[in-house]
Specification:
The protein has about 450 residues and is α+β, with helices and mostly antiparallel strands. It has 3 domains: about 40-60 and about 285-435, no CATH class; about 70-155 and about 260-280, Beta Barrel (Thrombin, subunit H); about 165-255, Thrombin, subunit H, CATH 2.40.10. It is about 15% helix and about 40% strand. It has 5 helices and 26 strands. The protein has helices at about 5-25, 35-55, 70-80, 120-125, 270-280; strands at about 90-100, 110, 115, 130, 135-140, 145-150, 165-170, 175-185, 195-200, 215, 230-240, 245-255, 265, 280, 290-295, 305-310, 315-320, 325-330, 335-340, 345-355, 360-370, 375-380, 390-395, 405-415, 420-425, 430-435. The longest helix is centred in the first third of the chain and has 23 residues, at about 35-55. About 40% of the residues are buried. Mean pLDDT is about 80; it is low at about 5-20.
Length: about 450
């Protein structure tokens, strides 16, 4: 070996050793030259990856594939629970993610993953969209021309509410009621809806034995003639001096979070349901493309993993037989760097299947790294009232490339707002995995 060959070999070794710590702390946001940098690290790491594969041999099977259809049937059953009188059939739509900012600082629109034929969309456009007897919003055309769900708490470009709602709030404790007029709150206010008028306005809605007051829609030919009565709008939340019985502001909080919605439904007739089954291209089982595992960081559980394939983009879920193994932290199209779902700061919606799947609860998890027994996450929002240990965690609607219904893991421990999961991706990864193909179904 000549002098220049030895120097080149030494430079490659130094670059590889110096690059490993940087790979472990890969940037959270895209940056210029990310693709070129990934290509360079692929050149350095591929020889080691080939040695790893030769020493390891073929991976053993991971067990039977996860039955995602069973989860879908449970979600459909939950979708059609507690429907008001006059609505007997819902046409399900798969949610892809959320966008915009509406009342209470929450999302303004649901992005739909399903493809809907234009003629059929024009027929059902403007109808209310429901989830388990509650009003979510209305089926509209989004900013890009694709169908979306505009939430009831959405604001127009000038910051004004699109709609007002007439409702009746009834105590689940004492049965007392009051009529209310609602509209979307401002983004800086604490809840999505604010009460403009209440009759009687001095009703105590917070005392023990009276709270909560659940608001349901009333038919109003002037405000919204197409909205049926009996849809849940939320529960009343008051701000003021409760000891003195003084209410300063009155709000309404819906029984769901936009990020937690995976399936929503549009009321249709039996004939429209049959037509819709042909006009809607469901995205529940999205088209996927293969990706090869080129290199693994030699730590346990798996650290960074280098993938090769097509369409590898930052934020996409890494899938295998109904499981979500991890997330792409960086991608350049043909190369991607993946990590586990507990990556610090990684935030994604999920579904918690409790009591053997009988109860499915939406949640939002934020990665906190590796804990004592498994992947550690923080649960956004109020701490859970039920014991979550043993609950199975599935992916929620996390946007393009992060589809719902793939199993992430199982809850091992719960401590306040923190949980530890036995992650599907903690086991050695197979040699070939899958990524969702971009584009409409």
């Amino acid at each position: 070996m000549g002098r220049w060959d030895r120097r080149l070999s030494a430079l490659l070794v130094l670059a590889w050793l110096g690059g490993l710590p940087w790979i472990r702390s890969w940037a959270r946001a895209p940056f210029p030259g990310e693709g070129a940098l990934l290509a360079g690290f692929s050149f350095l790491l591929l020889p080691e990856g080939r040695v790893q594969a030769a020493l390891r041999g073929p991976r053993p099977p991971r067990g039977p594939a996860v039955d995602r259809e069973l989860l879908r049937r449970r979600l459909l059953a939950r979708l059609e629970e507690e429907l008001p009188v006059g609505i007997s059939r819902l046409l399900p739509l798969v949610v892809q993610g959320v966008e915009g900012r509406g009342g209470g600082g929450r999302a303004a629109r649901l992005v739909l993953a399903d493809g809907i034929a234009e003629d059929f969309f024009r027929k059902i456009q403007g109808r209310p969209v429901l989830f388990a007897g509650s009003l979510v919003g209305f089926l509209e055309e989004g900013p890009g021309g694709d169908p979306c769900v505009r939430l009831g708490s959405a604001l127009d470009p000038s910051g004004r509410p699109y709609r007002r709602f007439l409702g009746i709030a009834r105590s689940e404790g004492c049965g007392e009621s009051l009529q209310v007029l609602l509209e979307a709150a401002r983004p800086e206010e604490p809840f999505p809806f604010r009460v403009l008028l209440a009759n009687p306005s001095t009703t105590d809605t917070w005392s023990e034995g009276r709270y909560p007051f659940v608001v349901r829609s009333l038919v109003s030919e002037r405000l919204d003639p197409g909205l049926p009565a009996g849809l849940v709008l939320g529960r009343i939340e008051d701000l003021g001096f409760r000891e003195a019985g003084v209410v300063l502001r009155r709000f309404v909080d819906p029984p769901w979070r936009p990020e937690g919605l995976v399936l929503v439904g549009v009321p249709v007739s039996e004939a429209e349901a049959a037509e819709g089954s042909q006009a809607i291209r469901s995205a529940w089982d999205p088209a996927r493309i293969p990706a090869a595992v080129l290199w693994r960081e030699a730590v346990a559980p798996p650290g960074r993993i280098l993938l090769g394939g097509r369409g590898l983009r930052r934020g996409a879920a890494v899938l295998f037989e109904g499981r979500c193994l991890g997330v792409l932290l960086a991608g350049s199209g043909s190369r991607g760097l993946a990590g586990l779902a507990c990556e610090p700061g990684l935030r994604f919606p999920c579904l918690l299947a409790l009591e053997g799947g009988k109860e499915i609860r939406p949640a939002v998890l934020v990665g906190e790294g590796w804990g004592r027994r498994g992947g550690r996450f923080r649960l956004e929002g109020a701490p859970p009232k039920k014991d979550l240990r043993g609950a199975v965690v599935y992916s929620g609607a996390g946007g393009i490339g992060f589809p719902p219904g793939f199993r992430i893991g199982r809850v091992l421990e719960v401590g306040g707002a923190f949980v530890e999961l036995r992650l599907e991706g903690a086991d050695p990864w197979p040699d070939r995995v899958e990524i969702v193909r971009r584009g409409r179904p």
